[in-house]
Specification:
heterodimer, A: 1040 residues, alpha+beta, nine-stranded mixed beta sheet, 24 helices, 32 strands, elongated, B: 301 residues, alpha/beta, Rossmann fold, four-stranded antiparallel beta sheet, globular
Chain lengths: 1040, 301
């Protein structure tokens, strides 16, 4: 056995390698699949905030007389099937307090007793509260409010609608100043970050959490205005925060928790009777969602991993089959000898099995080892979640299946030769058909593989199995080429020979007569196709993850403002970055319904530079169409508006709705939008029924920080008949500064038909307006600096009810207003699929209080923590906080750590292995044929062919084949990827915006091509020369 | 060049007689049926050493492979010892090849496993016989190599051996099981004179020493000249025999008499011949008025 192994050690190594590869693919797939799932779960649990991966149970005080459920009681209701995977709870009790005496400027905030809190803060001064009424305040509170250690702070409880004058009071004493240590302990709810901010609901300045001893939460408390103690706080809230135990929860545990968690969340506390007056509780958790996502990821992994590995295993198995066949062919004379010396067919089989069996067995063991090694490497490199080492039954089954497959393959390939009669075995060349013919097996493979690919390409077959498309195509094409190449090269070779071109002619003739040619072409074609596909999939996946992260995040860094004060944020950003090249404000307003169009209001000139538009060219977008109207806005600064007004007599133009209704004076109004983007309606006085001579109107206006005059209005109060009138407005001024009202063309009637109209015209001394009022609403004349419809670049379809390019979407106040589509976007960065991208400046001119649902963000051009700190500080000076910051890098990290991504990363293994297989096939082809080839070349030498020409023949016999196979494989890989990529899952969940770009990654293809050309080209060229160098004449004497 | 017959028999198995009856073998080549043997009747006595001669394509190698059981004849019977080969099962053939008939293929390397030494090759050749009978009286490997004079090269890689030594190694594995018959196809081809003589001497020693029946095929007239008996195969038939330097025509079982090649010069095909018994001497007289070519001036005797 060993001499035989030594004799053909290259072949032995190749067979062992291929057997190892088959085994490694089989064993590695379930190992990796499992590790991937575990890693995915661990990553999800690590990435998820503590309150999402854990359970928070909150019990509020049901009545003023009954306390909420205790933390211990709350936890006791959590089902044991869930609790076993949770760590001991962190309990806390909270009451909202305001400093006493309670005035509009009293700081308010939470008084919190949270178990173990002092272990999760650092004390800048003082100590941990350890007795009743002791509190620790944050360093920000010290800075903002000037409180210090030892200071008493009297407080009143803030309990909903109950006046603080009637709620319990306490005098708290500051014993420590803390800085929190960020961590999961806080359950995604840091105690600081509020100090100095304004509560949007109460408009009180907030303080950070006051940490206190649990004894503070118990009675007795003082009642205001009396010495009678109160039993307890009125609105105490008890919480139990249960953290998931990440060291014990894996994919199985998470999936097992889903149902009991869902059941528990629906009813966290048993209801007694009708539940009236009982303390109750609410529980929240994202565990069920995490489990659903994990199940989805598991399904993706279960699809991608086997598909990649099966393809590779099949390629390796096919190659092993071919190599074993070649090895057996090579051993035919030895089997013949054994049979001549009396060995039976069984003996012949034993001879072959004893020769090849140990090699395959060693390969199997090496494959098992390699699978475990690869799994170890994967777990410690790209599976960042830190999956545990697990060997589950599927690994054993896969190993057994691999062993069985190898054994069956070996027995099958040995069988025919072992049964062959000695006379047949003694033939030096296995009889083959004369002329062109294709075997049934090859024909079947070509037809099946080709049909399967056509089915994929035409859409008849879909799903993740499409990942096999490149391999199938390459198999069909490679085999076909292999069969066509023989006759073709023979013909060309003969022609070349007849023309006297000996070397290339001989080389081509050799190609035609080598039985291994077909195998080499088919295997290299399939290997290269797999390499190209794997490389392409890898790069396309990475590109799409980056694109999606960029497009969905919107900018390199995005901070969400805790508030909706657009003007203040704009002001701060202008101070921090006057050029607008580093930061820009973005306001998003959700549509009223789920199907509507989101409004994304931006400063176009800044947004175009700062926002990320992967796949789009922001420079090419029609930003100019978002510009405000060309009519200059009437901007005024001051506190008093005055103007001269001349009015014509009012005239009734019809019957009033009520009998006897008479004309009454109408009010002239001025419409303004102030610097806070809020609209103001200023009454300028009445226009008498009889008309007036010239008189001056004066009115205070809230425009100390600049306003825009957006319109004039006429309002006829009460019930009145339809009327008409006219006025001339001139000498307008604000705080003494003249205000040009412009020509009549700068104004337009805004009133809906049926309610009246205002028609401007030119007058010598000013703006003349004729008006009618036929309804009960105000009749308005708008300035054209505020467009009638907001121009918008629209991503996605227009909302329902749109007419032509006109549609409705939310303004800054959340109320829909008409917009007009002036261009299309494939998507709007950082927003929903259906988005109207509008000019923030234009939207602000409408003037309206910002909607509470508005999401106001600051977008950063770069992931620049220093700039973020600067912006945060500047915003804080204005009482504006940042509720959260995300970055494109964070978003991409999330996408990079999904089952789909890790599945695709197998492409590196598959691509590398495919290249190795291709090189191996080439080497094996040389190893199994070099003796015969060198004898052939020796004969050619004897016939007078010079050594140099022999080199050409030897290299030319294989290098063109290799090159042709590589080119073909690359073509098949590219074409196969074109059809396969749309069906390959790139993400755990598909992107909502149309960001996917599945076009071929030509750079990856080029690198794969180059790699294949270099590796296989060098192997082909070197081995060809090596064989030619062995063409010594002594080979002709048939010595062993 | 005289075979050395002085080596005494060592653990000899007695040679086996060989005979064929009306042996016909037809094979297909490029769509045509070709009769390689057309009724060969051959008898080889146990312990005899003969050479099969004849031009290329005459059928001598075919005859040898039929005797070795590599093919079944199209017609006719083959007897080796007590075995009639055409009726043997595969297992019986295996047993026959393991113990009684040894076939040496043309080209020494085809008889040897290239990665084994001569010693290992001999052991390999004995493997089947030992499996069949654990108590088989097989010669020691060293003894086998000693018989062919390769003791000094027992553990040498085959690649380091000369062609002559390689052929001797091939002989060694043929005699490794003390067969009753050795069938050797061109055992001296591609050898220089010295090597050729050594191989022939060795075969002759085995033949005389152990009584092993040896049938060899050769093209080489010098080899034929030293063989005790030669059988010439011509056009698939036995065309003549040589014994002790004398050439004989052999009357076949159906009465045909193939003329020796030199007689065909004077009696070309188609010549009408009268056969006369003249005082106990059988004379062939060409018929001068026959339809055949003109007879030579002098009759052939």
């Amino acid at each position: 056995m060993f001499p035989a192994l030594r004799y053909r050690w290259i072949q032995g190594v190749a067979i062992a390698l291929l057997a190892a590869l088959v085994t490694a693919c089989a064993v590695f797939a379930p190992l990796y699949d499992r590790a991937l799932q575990q890693s995915m779960v661990r990553t999800k649990l690590a990435q998820a905030p503590a309150d999402v991966s854990g359970i928070r149970i909150i019990s509020v005080t049901p009545t003023t007389t009954k306390p909420p459920l205790t933390n211990r009681k709350l936890v006791s209701y959590v089902p044991p099937a869930v609790r076993r995977y949770l760590r001991p709870p962190v309990g806390s009790s909270t009451v909202e307090v305001g400093t006493w005496p309670y005035t509009g400027s009293s700081p308010t905030g939470s008084l919190v007793a949270r178990s173990g809190a002092c272990q999760h803060v650092r004390f800048a001064s003082g100590r941990c509260p350890s007795a009743r009424n002791e509190i620790a305040i944050s360093t920000a509170d010290v800075t903002t409010f000037g409180w210090k250690v030892g200071q008493p702070i009297p407080v009143a409880e803030l309990a909903g609608q109950i006046s603080p004058a009637k709620t319990p009071h306490k005098s708290l004493r500051v014993v420590g100043v803390y800085t929190p240590i960020p961590g999961r302990y806080w359950f995604n709810d840091l105690p600081t970050g509020r100090a100095g901010l304004t509560d949007s609901a109460t408009h009180h300045t907030e303080h950070d959490w006051w940490l206190t001893d649990p004894a503070t939460m118990a009675g007795p408390l003082a009642k205001p205005g009396s010495t009678e103690p109160s039993a307890s706080w009125i609105s105490k809230v008890n919480e139990a925060d249960l953290f998931i135990d990440r060291s014990t929860v894996g994919i199985d545990q998470l999936l097992a928790m889903k149902k009991p968690v869902q059941e528990y969340l629906s009813a966290p506390v048993p209801v007694i009777g009708n539940g009236t007056g009982q303390p109750t509780a609410q529980a929240s958790s994202g565990i069920a969602d995490l489990a659903t996502a994990a199940a989805h990821g598991r399904d993706q992994a279960n699809t991608i991993v086997p598909l990649f590995m099966i393809q590779l295993a099949l390629l390796a198995a096919l190659t092993l089959w071919l190599v074993l066949g070649a090895a057996i062919d090579q051993r035919r004379p030895e089997v013949a000898l054994a049979r001549l010396r009396g060995r039976s067919t069984r003996g012949a089989r034993s001879l072959l099995l004893a020769d090849l069996g140990p090699v395959v067995a060693v390969g199997f063991l090496a494959g098992v080892g390699a699978a475990f090694g690869l799994s170890f490497a994967a777990r410690h490199t790209w599976l960042t979640g830190g999956a545990p080492f697990e060997v589950l039954p599927p690994v054993l089954y896969a190993g057994l299946a691999a062993a069985a497959a190898l054994a069956v393959m070996l027995l099958a390939v040995v069988h025919a030769t072992a049964l062959a009669p000695p006379a047949q075995l003694l033939r030096r060349v296995v009889p083959r058909r004369v002329g062109w013919a294709i075997g049934v097996g090859d024909l079947l493979l070509i037809v099946v593989a080709g049909a399967a690919f056509v089915a994929f390409a035409t859409g008849s077959l879909s799903g993740s199995l499409a990942m096999a498309a490149p391999t199938l195509l390459a198999l069909a094409v490679g085999l076909l080429l292999a069969h066509l190449l023989g006759p073709a090269t023979a013909g060309i070779g003969r022609r070349l020979l007849s023309r006297g071109r000996v070397s290339p002619g001989l080389a081509l003739l050799q190609v035609a007569r080598r039985p291994g040619t077909r195998k080499v072409i088919a295997t290299i074609t399939v290997s290269t196709a797999l390499l190209v596909f794997a490389s392409d999939a890898l790069v396309v996946g990475a590109r799409n993850r980056a694109d999606r992260a960029q497009a969905e995040t919107g900018a390199a860094m995005v901070s969400t403002i805790a508030g909706t004060d657009v003007a203040a944020v704009q002001h701060v950003l202008h101070q921090v970055d006057p050029s607008g090249t580093h930061v820009t404000p973005v306001a998003q307003l959700s549509p009223p319904g789920e199907q509507g169009t989101t409004t994304e209001a931006v400063v176009p000139s800044q947004f175009a530079n700062i926002a990320q538009f992967p796949g789009l060219a922001p420079d090419q977008l029609p930003w100019a169409r978002l510009a405000p109207p060309p009519v200059p806005a009437i901007s005024v600064t001051g506190t008093t508006f005055s103007a001269r007004v001349r009015s014509a007599p009012l005239a009734a133009t019809g019957q009033g709705p009520l009998k006897g209704s008479r004309l009454a004076p109408v009010q002239l109004r001025l419409l303004l939008t102030n610097s806070d983007a809020q609209q103001a309606v200023i009454g300028l006085g009445d226009l008498p029924v009889t008309g007036s001579g010239v008189h001056t109107v004066t009115a205070p206006i809230p425009c100390a920080h600049t306003c825009l005059i957006t319109g004039l209005g006429i309002y006829a109060p009460g019930v009145h008949p339809p009327l008409s009138g006219g006025l001339t407005l001139s000498h307008a001024s604000v705080s003494g500064h003249p205000v040009p009202l412009g020509d009549p063309g700068h104004w337009r009637n805004l009133t809906a038909s049926g309610d009246g109209s205002m028609t401007p015209s030119n007058a010598r001394e000013g703006l003349q307006v004729k008006f009618t009022d036929t309804g009960t609403s105000e009749v308005d004349l708008g300035h054209k600096s505020v467009p009638a419809r907001v121009p918008a670049l629209v991503a996605g379809p227009l909302p329902a009810g749109s007419q032509g390019d006109t549609f409705q979407a939310a303004g800054l106040d959340g109320i829909t207003r008409p917009m007009t589509k002036v261009g299309s976007l494939r998507y709007a960065p950082g927003s929903a699929p259906a988005t109207a991208l509008v000019n923030l400046d234009v939207l602000e001119r409408y003037g309206a209080p910002p909607a509470s649902t508005m999401v106001l963000q600051v977008w950063f051009a770069h992931n620049d923590p220093a700039l973020l700190a600067k912006v945060t500080a500047a915003l804080k000076q204005q009482g504006i906080g940042i509720s959260g910051t995300t970055t494109t890098a964070d978003a991409q990290r999330v996408y990079d750590q999904t089952a789909a991504t890790w599945g695709l990363q197998l492409g590196t293994v598959v691509g590398g292995a495919a290249a190795v297989i291709a090189a191996l096939v080439l080497l094996i082809a040389v190893a199994t044929s070099w003796r015969m080839r060198s004898r052939d070349y020796a004969a050619l030498r004897m016939s007078g062919l010079p050594r140099r020409a022999l080199m050409v023949v030897s290299v030319g016999e294989q290098l063109p084949l290799v090159l042709a196979s590589i080119i073909l494989g690359v073509a098949c890989g590219v074409l196969g990827a074109h059809y396969a990529m749309p069906m390959v899952p790139l993400f755990a969940t598909p992107p909502a915006i149309p960001i996917l770009n599945l076009s071929t990654a030509w750079t990856a293809v080029a690198w794969a091509l180059l790699g294949a050309l270099v590796v296989l080209g060098v192997v082909g060229w070197t081995s060809g020369r090596w064989v030619a160098r062995r063409a010594r004449l002594t080979r002709l004497r048939e010595a062993p | 060049m005289t075979p050395d017959t002085t080596t005494p028999p060592v653990a000899a198995r007695s040679g086996l007689a060989i005979s064929t009856r009306g042996l016909v073998h037809i094979y297909r080549s490029e769509g045509h049926d070709v009769a390689a043997l057309s009724g060969v009747d051959l008898s080889v006595a146990a312990g005899e050493m003969i050479a099969l001669l004849g031009p290329s394509g005459a059928g001598k190698s075919t005859l040898l492979t039929l005797l070795g059981g590599l093919f079944k004849p199209s017609a006719g019977k083959i007897f080796i010892g007590e075995h009639e080969l055409t009726s043997l099962t595969t297992n019986q053939f295996d047993r026959l090849r393991a113990t009684e008939v040894s076939l040496m293929l043309q080209g020494a390397s085809r008889n040897l496993l290239p990665y084994l030494t001569p010693r290992q090759n001999v052991a390999f050749a004995q493997h089947a016989a030992r499996r069949l009978d654990k108590h088989a009286d097989l010669p020691d490997v060293r003894e086998v190599l000693d018989r062919v004079g390769l003791t000094g090269h027992a553990d040498a890689p085959l690649g380091s051996l000369t062609p002559g030594h390689l052929q001797l190694a091939a002989v060694a594995i043929c005699i490794a099981t003390n067969p009753g018959v050795i069938l050797a196809d061109e055992p001296t081809s591609q050898l220089d004179h010295h090597a050729r003589d050594t191989v022939l001497d060795t075969l002759a020693r085995i033949n005389t020493g152990q009584g092993t029946t040896v049938v060899l095929v050769t093209h080489d007239p010098q080899v034929a000249a030293v063989m005790p008996r030669t059988v010439t195969i011509r056009d698939g038939r036995i065309g003549g025999e040589g014994r002790a330097g004398q050439e004989y025509a052999v009357v076949t079982a159906d009465g045909f008499l193939p003329l020796p090649a030199h007689a065909l010069d004077v009696l070309p095909p188609g010549t009408l011949v009268r056969v006369h018994d003249q005082d106990g001497t059988w004379v062939l007289l060409p018929d001068a008025g026959g339809t055949g070519p003109e007879p030579p001036e002098e009759g052939a005797r």
